[in-house]
Amino acid sequence: IEFEFNKSNITAEGAFELDKLVQVLKNNENMVIMVKAHTDNRGSDTYNMNLSDRRAKSTVQYVISKGIDKSRITGKGYGESEPKIDCKEACTEEEHAENRRSEFLIVKK
Question: Second label for 91, Cα 20 to 30 Å away, from 3, 12, 30, 84?
Answer without folding.
Answer: 12
